[in-house]
Amino acid sequence: MSSSVEVDRDRQEAQAPADDPVTGPVDEAASKSGDDAAAGGRRGLTSRLRRRPTTSAPESTPEVVTGPALDIAPNDPILGYFHETPGVVDIRTLTLESPALDKMREAGVVLVVPLVTSGELVGLLQLGARLSERDYSKDDRQLLESLARYAAPALRLGQLVRQQEAEARSRERFEQELKVAQLIQQQFLPKTLPDLPTWHISAFYRPARTVGGDFYDFISLPDGRVMVVTGDVTDKGVPAALVMSSTHALLRETSPRLKSPSAVLARVNDLLCDDIPAHMFVTCLAMVLDPPTGRVDFANAGHNLPYVRGVDGTVRELHATGMPLGLMPGMTYDQYSAVIAPGEQLLLYSDGLTEQHDGNGEMFGFGRTADVVARARTGDELTDLCVSELARFTGADVEQEDDITLVALRRTEGAAHGASAPGVITAFTLASDPGNEREALARVAEAVVDLGLTADQLERLKTAVAEATMNAIEHGNANRHDVPVDVTVHDEGTQIAVTVTDHGGALGEVGTTHPDLELKLAGLQTPRGWGLFLIENMVDEVDQTMENGRHTVRLVMHLDPDATTDKEGPDVDV
Amino acid sequence: MSTYEVDVRGEPPVAVMALEGRIDRDAMTSLTMAYEAAVVADPPVILLDFTAVDYINSTGIALIVGVLGRARAEGRRVLAAGLSDHYERIFTITKLSDFIQIYSDVDAAVDGAATH
Lengths: 574, 116
Description:
The complex is a heterodimer. By secondary structure, chain A is of the alpha+beta class. Chain A folds into three domains: about 1-165, Beta-Lactamase (2-Layer Sandwich); about 190-410, Phosphatase 2c, domain 1, CATH 3.60.40; about 420-560, 2-Layer Sandwich (Heat Shock Protein 90). Chain A has helices at about 10-15, 35-55, 75-85, 100-105, 140-185, 235-260, 260-275, 350-355, 365-375, 380-395, 435-445, 455-475, 515-520, 530-540, and strands at about 1-5, 90, 110-115, 120-130, 200-205, 215-220, 225-235, 280-290, 295-300, 305-310, 315, 335-340, 345-350, 405-410, 425-430, 485-490, 495-500, 540-545, 550-560. In chain A, the strands form four sheets. Chain A has a five-stranded antiparallel sheet with strand order 5-14-13-10-11. In chain A, strands 6-7-8-9-12 form a five-stranded antiparallel sheet. A five-stranded antiparallel sheet of chain A has the order 15-16-17-19-18, covered by helices on one side. Chain A is rod-shaped. Chain B has a single domain (about 5-110), classed as Transcription Regulator spoIIAA (2-Layer Sandwich), CATH 3.30.750. Chain B is built from five helices and five strands; from the N terminus they run E-E-H-E-H-E-H-H-E-H. Chain B is an alpha/beta fold. The interface of A and B includes residues 515, 518, 523, 534 and 537 of A.
């Protein structure tokens, strides 16, 4: 009877934490592979040992006995003994406290030949009692020793080949999984950034090699505000990417309906709790931005707190806390508000930035992040600085640990109005086609609907905008389709201003004569020419300016301070 | 203005031009045709019914001035009915209301034509 035990050191290392510490990860390989070199050797030995009794004792029936599956614990002293002992070991005379030794004896093993190569114990040949009544001879032992010398490197080679194949398969699976995770994740990152008047938005995303679960999104709300979300799924790879895609879908679905960040987070948390794997959760910051006023309403589910850089370079944090999503149902999230003034910049970021370590195990941290925020005036400067400072901090050879996401929102400074800079509510461009004044009228009316104009004022403003746009199309731009008319609506607090700009390079002659109905009726004046006259009578102020070939009419309507119209719009539910 | 309709009512006969939609450059042809249809029976009074009109711009004002000028030249009075407050204000600002008597609705205008 003979069998061999392979000592698979690599497997032992790879699986050590998962294996039962008592039995240990040493497996037997007596008949695993019929065509590998070691197995061939074993067969030869078995038949040779069996041939003698067949000739000398014809009455006995040779019995092929398969050696016992033997697990040797990594801390069993017998491993050390075999490793140190060259040649054949007779275990009958061995005195050693070893569970494996006891098992071998129980199984009838008599001789053990350690297979050692390059200083490594790679397997054992185990032999039972000779089938003849005689014990193993000196020749037998010499034969076994020389067999072991050849078998050990061959067995090791076989093990290495097998190990390499397994590693290649696992590497391939891993790379494949990374690719899938990357695909899923990038699918859900915004392809374009929203174009908000008076705001500059920049975003930066750099996945770690193993792909974390970072995401960000901009969701337009029906009232013209924008929900900005940044988040991070714990865990990596495909599982994180899948949870990220569900979270993304839930945020997209609930935001336009619920509008308030706190309500959205509470709802998404409840929905996620049903399905999320037990060990995973999602941190998320949700913020609703009202572009014309700079007001932000936000709530936080365990994500990093946003930084705001003031005009003077000071940095403040927008504080909000709450439980991450997907841990516990029924959570509520406090909602906070702040105003981002003209010239200020807001940064949302993931912990891939703050928690990146350098070679000495030190984290980049909040202090360095705040310093970078203080130094950067624009979003691009900010993302560039974050990347370069982080690279300087970690040094060249340190791998990026987690995804890094940066979203910067900068409110541009009002040109001439300083602190009370007018918020641009809407800005659009029209082609110079007759009839397009009606589009201008409709869009301006829609933009000012909640700003406190009386019904009468709104009608007057509409007529004035339509007339100014008509002038721009017909006279300023001479109905040339490809010459644009720019319309901008400003909320200036106590008044609303609409500017209409053409590119004709000359003041229209429409307003140059004062229309006189009697003269017109008498045929002494064209029946036309009412445009500017109407405008002047519709709004509270009219300015015309000419600059670089652009003619701008500015229409101003004063708001009645006693008007009771709610300028804030519907309250969000907190 | 997309369609027009002429109805002659009352004594003196009032030709009612029922205008619709927008009175702007696109209304030029239809307004002229409506006027032609209205004066076939040579009515002394023309009533512009703005009840179904939702938009009048400066070009529309010019068209109305044109109609008014022509009617006056032909010795006809012009009345208006159904103007919103906003457009009534514009008629006042442009002094059209000095030449066009404004009534709240068609019935009031037909009655008014009889008493003036």
